[in-house]
């Protein structure tokens, strides 16, 4: 090869190979850079989507929190209204007037749980109710004495059977005692008792009753028995202790607190409708 040809090869061929390598390297770098930019863009897109999802979830949480706040406010207003409706002190819980009962078809004594103490004796509250009911029976105000009270939790006997044994021991003839052994509360006391007394009686059956219970229970008991379809008079059991004694005041506070709690519960149901349902569908 002549020198001019060699120079020509060095000028035209060798530089061309070097340029090609440089171009390949540049293209490779550009490809890597493009890949990096694509990956970065993908990451930014994913982050944007996650941010949007988080924003939506935050908005949903804010709406739910607002709804919960509104419901809480409504519940608070409702509870406050029920507390006011329940009355302050004993107002609206104790009957304003308790006339002496007139003759009726039956005297209904409402039970009180638990009926027996640890020694198997009738508890004082239930004994006071029974004593008043038996006294009314002995006065001849009704020919039938109804004992209303269902199963005692955790025991194999009923309130009504316990009450019956006490009345028998007091000399009440068994033929004049009727048991309502299925009820669990005052609503069922009312519905089940009226259903029992109306069994076999042509409609409309509106039994005339003297309902005996604690003084602080009578307003609610009268209302529920009237809802169940009875003509109702009420008679209060004797209060414990002397007037203004610590025992009397403690009893009053306990019973008033219990009645307020029941009235709050009644704010979420229709107790009158339930009493009618118990009469229509009871045992």
Give a description of the structure.
With 283 residues, this protein is α/β, with parallel strands linked by helices. It is 58% helix and 9% strand. A 5-stranded parallel sheet has the order 3-2-1-4-5, sandwiched between helices. α5 (186-197) crosses α6 (218-227), α5 runs parallel beside α8 (271-281) and α6 (218-227) packs across α8. It is built from 8 helices and 5 strands. It starts with a helix and ends with a helix. It is rod-shaped and about 135 Å long.
Strand content: 5-15%
Helix residue percentage: 55-70%
Distance between the termini: 126 Å
Gross morphology is rod-shaped
Largest sheet: 5 strands, parallel
Low-confidence stretches: 81-91
Strand order of the largest sheet: 3-2-1-4-5
The helix tally amounts to 8
The secondary structure category is alpha/beta
Average pLDDT, rounded to a whole number, is: 87
Question: What is the succession of H and E elements?
Answer: HHEHEHEHEHEHH
Summarize the structure.
The protein is α/β, with parallel strands linked by helices and 283 residues long. It is built from 8 helices and 5 strands, in the order ααβαβαβαβαβαα.
